[in-house]
């Protein structure tokens, strides 16, 4: 008969949120055998952002166990042994294919069942694939995506097999920008393709993008904007050889990397949990519409107190903090204590080559570019404020020190008033230093 196991707490998913939740459970006190993490990945939770950065370095690449959670936020690394010492079960290589919240039962692809009293849903996101839209030739070899270690290993193998070859990067978001840099550092001839007028349009203003596009061009990366890949050619082995663009251009390609976005993995809960904005709707304590069922990380649509709005956030900082909040809430309920509402300040970051930026707050209202955004600068340092209703609500900074990044975070949280936008532009980072 298939295995049937029972736990007090089950975390479904073994990514960033799961790792930070496990650490918080251990901190709050959990008895051996009470908690299980069920993950379809074969490894213990790790810091996913490493996959598009250190994991792809040509030398001294990051490898597990080096970046298991919780090193990403400066904490202690939780090795598989840590989980066994704490009596936390890591149930790996196990995909849950059915969740019945009424009977509190999860069923795996092999028919094993897991029952729980409290469930934390931490299934994260899956990547959108070109095959989802039936793009011609999209199933060819070496058209790659990046979400987990298995994807990253495929990419590393492809870079070995196609040494010094040509790479086409489809998409101009986080993955597109970080992967273009990674492939360039690995000596590939890199071309980026995206339909928008500039990269990362959901966050970057044209002034911000001006810097990164110029910086990438100076590194030898070609950028093709305003068009999309509509098909691919392959050789007799099925290996991709070219990407065909909508505008008629054909780009030779030995490797294609597609980064066109993700989708939260919520299908298991359709019709069982209230949803909103593509995610599972939660309260300020990450509890869903089903009592005892929590959603954390990428899948949660939660009240963002600062902006008085339900939002979903696909970033690692929120994955960590939402996990900690949910576990504190679960443990506080057991002891009759209370926990303050989640009060999240959005924080996004990225780095590639020698550049690194941070963003805090909300990118709405009028943007005010400051500093030197010349891509040819020896030490580029610039940023942008966003001003809404006379208040600074968001700040972006390239090349900031730790102290300066803390200053922009304070600004985004405090939302200071600005009387004169032109003066703010002149003052630049000085303004933040005074808040
Ligand atoms: P995940 O970390 O994705 O974990 C979800 C887990 O659930 C996975 O282990 C998955 O296999 C498992 N799972 C899903 N469904 C099932 C199922 N049915 N059964 C069993 N297991 C299941 N954010 C930043 O802020 N900065 C960055 O620089 C950055 N870089 C990134 C780079 C890459 C390559 C990627 C993919 C993401 C990056 N992100 C970054 C986003 C960040 O990693 C995510 O927001 C974060 O991982 C979300 O955590 P999570 O726990 O919700 O989901």
Q: Quickly count the helices.
A: 9
Structural class given helices, strands, pairing?
alpha/beta
DSSP strand content: 25-35%
Main sheet strand line-up: 4-3-2-8-21
Largest sheet geometry: 5 strands, parallel
Mass-distribution shape: globular
User: What is the overall pLDDT average?
Assistant: 97
DSSP, total strands: 28
* Spatial gap, N to C terminus: 64 Å
Ligands in the model, by name, code or SMILES, are: flavin-adenine dinucleotide
Helix content: 10-25%
- Give the low-confidence spans: none
The Rg value, from CA coordinates, equals 23 Å
Give the gist of this structure.
The chain has 9 helices and 28 strands. It has 435 residues and is α/β, with parallel strands linked by helices. The mean pLDDT is 97.
How would you portray this structure in words?
This protein is an alpha/beta fold and 435 residues long. It is 24% helix and 29% strand. The protein has 9 helices and 28 strands. Helix 1 packs parallel to helix 6. The longest helix is centred in the last third of the chain and has 19 residues, at 316-334. It starts with a strand and ends with a helix. Bound molecules: flavin-adenine dinucleotide.
Properties at a glance:
single chain; five-stranded parallel β-sheet; globular; 9 helices; 29% strand; binds flavin-adenine dinucleotide
């Amino acid at each position: 008969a298939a295995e049937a196991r029972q736990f007090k707490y089950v975390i479904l998913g073994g990514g960033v949120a799961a790792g930070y939740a496990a650490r918080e459970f251990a901190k709050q006190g959990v008895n051996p055998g009470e908690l299980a993490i069920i993950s379809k990945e074969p490894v213990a939770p790790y810091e996913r952002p490493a996959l598009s950065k250190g994991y792809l370095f040509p030398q001294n690449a990051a490898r597990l166990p080096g970046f298991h959670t919780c090193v990403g936020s400066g904490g202690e690394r939780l090795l598989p042994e840590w989980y066994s010492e704490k009596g936390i079960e890591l149930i790996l290589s196990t995909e849950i294919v059915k969740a019945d919240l009424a009977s509190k039962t999860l069923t795996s692809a092999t028919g094993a069942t897991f029952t729980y009293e409290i469930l934390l849903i931490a299934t994260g996101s899956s990547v959108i694939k070109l095959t989802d839209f039936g793009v011609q030739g999209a199933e060819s070899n070496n058209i790659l995506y990046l979400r987990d270690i298995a994807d990253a290993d495929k990419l590393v193998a492809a870079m070995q097999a196609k040494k010094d070859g040509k790479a086409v990067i489809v998409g101009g978001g986080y993955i597109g920008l970080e992967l273009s840099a990674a492939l360039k550092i690995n000596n590939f001839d890199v071309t980026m393709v995206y339909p928008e007028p500039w990269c990362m349009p959901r966050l970057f203003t044209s002034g911000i993008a001006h810097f990164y596009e110029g910086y990438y061009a100076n590194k030898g990366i070609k950028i093709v904007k305003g068009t999309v890949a509509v098909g691919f050619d392959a050789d007799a082995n099925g290996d991709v050889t070219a990407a065909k663009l909508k505008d008629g251009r054909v780009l030779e390609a030995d490797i294609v990397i597609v980064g066109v976005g993700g989708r939260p993995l919520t299908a298991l809960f359709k019709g069982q949990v209230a949803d909103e904005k593509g995610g599972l709707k939660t309260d300020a304590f990450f509890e869903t519409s089903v009592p005892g069922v929590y959603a954390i990380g990428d899948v949660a649509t939660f009240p963002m107190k600062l902006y008085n709005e339900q939002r979903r956030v696909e970033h690692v900082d929120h994955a960590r903090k939402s996990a900690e909040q949910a576990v504190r809430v679960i443990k506080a309920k057991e002891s009759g204590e209370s926990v303050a509402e989640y009060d999240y300040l959005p924080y996004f970051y990225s780095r590639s080559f020698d550049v690194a930026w941070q963003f805090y707050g909300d990118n709405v209202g009028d943007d005010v570019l400051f500093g030197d955004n010349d891509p040819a600068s020896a030490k580029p340092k610039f940023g942008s404020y966003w001003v809404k209703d006379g208040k600074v609500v968001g700040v972006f900074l390239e090349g900031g020190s730790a102290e300066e990044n803390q200053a922009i975070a304070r600004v985004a949280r405090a939302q200071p008033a600005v009387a004169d936008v032109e003066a703010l532009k002149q003052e630049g980072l000085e303004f933040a230093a005074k808040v």
